[in-house]
Amino acid sequence: MKGIFIAFDQAHRDDVIASLASCMQRGFTMIPDATGRGSNTGEPHLGSHAWPGTNSAIITICPDERVDTILDRLKKIDHDRPMLGLRAFVFPVEQAI
Amino acid sequence: MTLYEGAVRRPIMTTLVFVAIAIFGLFSLSKLPIDLMPDIDTNMIMVMETYAGASAEDIENNVTRPLENTLNSVNYLKHITSQSRENYAIITLEFEYGHDIDALTNDVRDKLDMVSSALPEEAGTPIIFKFSSDMIPILVLSAQARESTPALYKILDDQVANPLARIAGVGSVSVSGAAERTIYVYCDPNKLEAYGLTINGIAGIIGAENINVPGGSFDTGNKAYTLRIEGEFDDPKEMLDLVVGHRDNQLVYLRDVATVVDGVQERAQKVTTFFTNENDPKGYSGELGAMIIVQKQSGANSVAITEKVLKMLPQIQKTLPTDVTLGVIVNTSENIYATIDSLEEVIAYAMLFVALVCFLFLGRWRAVVVIVLTIPLSLVSSFIYLAIAGSSINMISLSCLSIAIGNVVDDAIVVLENVTNHIERGSDPKQAAIHGTNEVAISVVASTLTMIGVFFPLTMIPGMTGVLFRELGWMMCVIMTVSTTSALTFTPMLCSQMLRLKKRENGFSRWYDHFIVRGMLDKLDHWYSKRINWAVRHRKTMVGIIILFFILSVMPAVMGLIGTGFFPQSDSGRISVRLELPIGTRQARAEEIANELSNLWMSRWGTPEQKVLKACNFTTGQADTDNMFASMQDNGTHIISFNIALYKVNERNLKLSMYDVGNMMRKDLKKYPELVKIQVIEGGQRGMGGQTTADFEIYGYDLAYTDSLTSMMQRYMSEVRGVSQINISRPARQPEVQVDLDRGKLARYDLNTATAGAFLRSAFNGTTASYFREDGEEYDIIVRYTPEVREDVKTIENILLTSPTGSVRVRDIGEVVERETLPTIERKDRQRINTLSCVVNEDESNLGSVVNAGKDYIEELRNQGYLSGDVDIMVSGSYEDQQDSFRDLGTLGALILIIVFIVMAAQFESWSDPFIIMLVSIPFTITGVILALWITGVDLNVMSMLGCIMLIGIVVKNGIVLIDYIHLLRERGESVISAVVHAGRSRLRPVLMTTLTTILGMVPMAVGSGQGSEMWQPLGIAIIGGLLVSTMMTLVVVPSIYCIVQGFKINASRRQWANQLGVEAEWNKKKHTFRRHRRK
């Protein structure tokens, strides 16, 4: 079991959910309005006057073998619209109930 | 889910909501009446009180004064004016604008009830009219007849005037020019004397003979009969055989002492109407006939009434004898329709221009559609408001639409621009629409709030200006609210549906990118960023330049090159001319002159080739006393009044305006030295788009003294440049023959003043003996002296007064003397007044300078001691209205400035930023307006003032956009100067685009030449001038001043930090190094 934390520009929201679905990944938790900025590049999404853009974040827990497919699809979304921004981070899940 | 998210996710609902608004709007539009102006003339009530037999001065003392004193306490009364004339008084109450006239009428009625006991016993019941007799007729009809001529008056009065007067909103219908059939029994005084008869005796005999007497009924056998004596005459000639007395056992017949004439009234108004006629070799034709004048009540809708009247005419025509034909001479609604049509054209052009600007800047038809769709939606919604408020489609509401066109797209443009940005960054259109709108929503709402901050106070102006602009204020508020709502819902929805992620490349888009974007817009951006870069680095020079520019640009105003006026004069195609010959001139001479003038004018302007005058109609002669409305107007044998209708402005072949024609008429009239008074009135009432007059009111009880003051003033004013005509309200004294009776002598013959007076009256005025009945109509039979005898003053002296104790001639018991009396005494605010009104020729001068010339002279008179006690001269007329309006608009301007400041300060959370914006944009708006007015030669009047006020809201918007973006860049960490330069460069296009849409939306207004365009031209010119200069200044000067203010702020905060850190000494030492460093 792996967890994936996906932070992305709100505009990607429908695409991200669609790509999860297309990988048979049913479960996820979404934080619709998230703010933040990247460590290296990209515009900050702070929801402020200066940086009005906002993000959404999704945490999804999936079987190990599905991680690569999901990441591939997310990478494609990011690649298509590089100006918006999408990042995903994978972490191990030790236990679940 | 936010508003815009909902709208984007539910496109069908959003579309249908706006479709519903559009349908309601169009439905309301179909129900809206049309008028020239919002209801503005609802402020006059006229009270008429008769007191038969009293002279003007008696009326003034006994009737006018008590009425005035009581009516003076009615609420909201602005002025009370009165005319005391022989037999009656007319009191006109002028109220403050904007109050319910029906409630006021009730108040007036209550007051009249209170005062009725204080009036003389013989005085009649006061009558209230909800209109003012000064109001111009809305419709003038002509009636021609052949066989029915003798009965024409009766026919018109019963069958035309009465049904028309029943139409709701019609104030009065009066018939003139149709003489009433009257049967005169003309007695020879010498013969009467010889046979010992009197006028009254003959009248009594005629009355006793012209009678049917029922004698009861009786039964004979099976039948019942009624008994009757039929003595009524079947033919007036029968009267000649009446026995009127005996002399030496001989019967004296009426034919022995009198003649019977079956004719028309001796004194009657004659009406001649000239029309353009293509079939006539002269190009025009004229004929005698009757005239029917329709006046409306205060506040009634002219167009609606005219339509109802015109609709009724064919029905009425059917009831008339076949030889009587009705026609229309003057129809006010034509002018109103033409004005509305030309405004609709202005609106159509404005929409086209706005669409073109959008296309130029956006280059994509889809984007243009998204934006342009907002225009009809927001405009149509205002019709719903108009329908609810019971208003109409009029010049103000349509001008308002025209002004709004350029502004309603602004919000949509901002939203579209941001959504496009998001799409270009790669967002899906739907997501881009939601998030793009979300980001700008607050600033869109804020800029709408500033606009509402400007327009809402317009709804609170008092006075006449208030009535005009209240509607405009509300409409703009409604339109702005709807346009903002649409920009936040409908526009993002459309964006999500219509915009594409990838632009399709085609020939046009390549051409557009090459020529417009790279060839023009990019170069402009580049050029501007260089200028702004220079400006922010040479701030002191900039401040110097703008102060210099400001001083130079206000010079035209300081030097008095800008005229002031009240309302622009517009060409309504109506001229009325009133001419007075010396009192006592015969009607025939008046007619001769009138015919000469009509022929001259019609041949010069009235033929089908020239097509300027459409109809020229004149009335001469004295009105019959029982024609109340005609007799309320000044009339007399020496007066000629013309009613002239012109073709619509765009139909005229000779390009002459109403004012050109009026001025040429004045020149023609000056060639007639016998005309003692000349009055040419262009247009309708004073004020609203009619003639501009500078009125001087001369108050004072002493008639002779105020007369001499008036003539002094008249002499002076006639020399003033720009005064084309001077009218004096006090009429000339009328010659009168009076009989001073000796009461002692009267008593000796058993007579008194009443009996002696009755003899005189029946001799000259005649006695109505009876009525001649024919075909169900009654005609007066009047017995009086023959006309030849009545022409001689000696006849009066020779009148024989008989009494039981003998008979005596007038010369033996009294003296016949000639005197002069004043036919009318006018009062205003309970003081005697004489008004001198100077008609201003706007081509030569303006209201302001004429009034100033008059004021100087009044001051001179005051210094010389002419004005003392109750004698005073005041300025009124258009000038008073203008001053009231300017004061109201000035207060409003101040109020609006405060509100706009509040909105901006709240948005920026700063004291200094709104101050910078207003410091730059407001003064340069004023200079822009001044320059525009100076160049175009237009006066500063209510319309251009309104333009200035609206500009406050429009011009600060540019500053808001700029400062807002500078803030954003500063928050992103840029330095002051670089933020200013970058923000300028990036905001240049949106600023230019919104400004150009507003300016080009105004261009059709400013250059239009249709009917009524004079009215809105000043508004368009003021807005274009102010916005142009202010935008240019905002783009260059706001950045500089922003840098200066920020410089102070940064220095202050550095000093504060230094204080806190305890290194003040260090700071002071190195201050110069820091500054030098910064300069590099």
Can you lay out the helices and strands and say which pair or pack?
The complex is a heterodimer of chains A (97) and B (1080).
Chain A: E1 2-9, H1 13-22, E2 29-34, E3 55-62, H2 67-80, E4 86-92
Antiparallel strand pairs in A: 1-3, 1-4, 2-3
Helix pairs in contact in A: 1-2
Chain B: H1 3-9, H2 11-31, E1 44-50, H3 56-71, E2 77-85, E3 88-95, H4 101-115, E4 127-129, E5 139-144, H5 152-165, E6 170-176, E7 181-187, H6 189-195, H7 199-209, E8 212-220, E9 223-230, E10 243-247, E11 250-253, H8 254-257, E12 258-264, E13 270-276, E14 284-296, H9 302-319, E15 325-331, H10 332-362, H11 365-372, H12 374-388, H13 395-424, H14 429-455, H15 463-488, H16 490-498, H17 507-537, H18 539-558, E16 574-580, H19 587-605, E17 613-621, H20 628-632, E18 636-646, H21 658-670, E19 677-682, E20 693-699, H22 703-717, E21 723-728, E22 734-741, H23 743-748, H24 753-764, E23 767-774, E24 777-785, H25 787-790, H26 793-798, E25 800-803, E26 806-809, H27 810-813, E27 814-821, E28 824-828, E29 831-840, H28 847-863, E30 872-877, H29 878-908, H30 912-936, H31 942-971, H32 976-1007, H33 1013-1061, H34 1064-1079
Parallel strand pairs in B: 7-24
Antiparallel strand pairs in B: 1-3, 1-4, 2-3, 2-28, 5-14, 5-15, 6-14, 7-12, 8-9, 10-11, 13-14, 13-17, 16-18, 16-19, 17-18, 20-29, 20-30, 21-29, 22-27, 23-24, 25-26, 28-29
Helix pairs in contact in B: 1-14, 1-16, 2-12, 2-16, 3-4, 5-9, 9-10, 10-11, 10-13, 10-32, 11-13, 11-16, 12-13, 12-15, 13-14, 13-15, 13-32, 14-15, 14-16, 14-29, 14-31, 15-29, 17-32, 17-33, 18-30, 18-33, 29-30, 29-31, 30-31, 30-33, 31-32, 31-33, 32-33
